Inverse folding.
């Protein structure tokens, strides 16, 4: 979730990232980012969701968002996004979240973050990266 003070991240997502570091040492640790705040989502909150086939982290994000609808919900998985939208949540992907974070001054630049995400397997075309950087004010669209 994104609020004006930064990114709110359910602890379940942080745990998934911790497990990811067993396979890839360079997996991000959100605890080391000053603009990320971990939030707790109880198993009971998650169990209140309608039946679904999502992972624990995605379910925690959606459960938290259900009780905090003033925040944007950040999900990139297509099935998770559809599920959240069906529940009436306002959903944004990671590229949109990075643009907002840049505009809010939470991150200094996003070009290297986008390149890292692309390297990690996120499907980000050069056109998407170019447009995102333009929207974040990191390049001059006329300089090409």
């Amino acid at each position: 979730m994104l609020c004006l003070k930064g990114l709110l991240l359910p602890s379940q997502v942080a745990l998934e990232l911790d497990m990811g570091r067993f396979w890839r040492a360079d997996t991000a640790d959100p605890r080391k980012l000053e603009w990320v705040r971990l939030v707790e989502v109880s198993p009971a909150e998650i169990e209140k969701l309608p039946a679904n086939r999502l992972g624990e982290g995605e379910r925690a994000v959606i459960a938290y968002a259900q009780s905090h609808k003033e925040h944007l919900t950040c999900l990139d998985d297509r099935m998770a996004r559809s599920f959240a939208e069906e529940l009436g949540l306002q959903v944004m992907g990671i590229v949109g979240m990075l643009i907002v974070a840049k505009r809010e001054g939470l991150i200094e630049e996003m070009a290297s973050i986008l390149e890292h995400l692309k390297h990690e397997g996120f499907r980000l075309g050069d056109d998407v990266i170019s447009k995102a950087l333009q929207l974040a004010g990191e390049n001059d669209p006329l300089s090409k």
About this structure: The chain has a mean pLDDT of 86. The beta strands are 2-3, 6-10, 36-39, 73-74, 91-92. The CA atoms of residues 48 and 63 lie 8 Å apart.
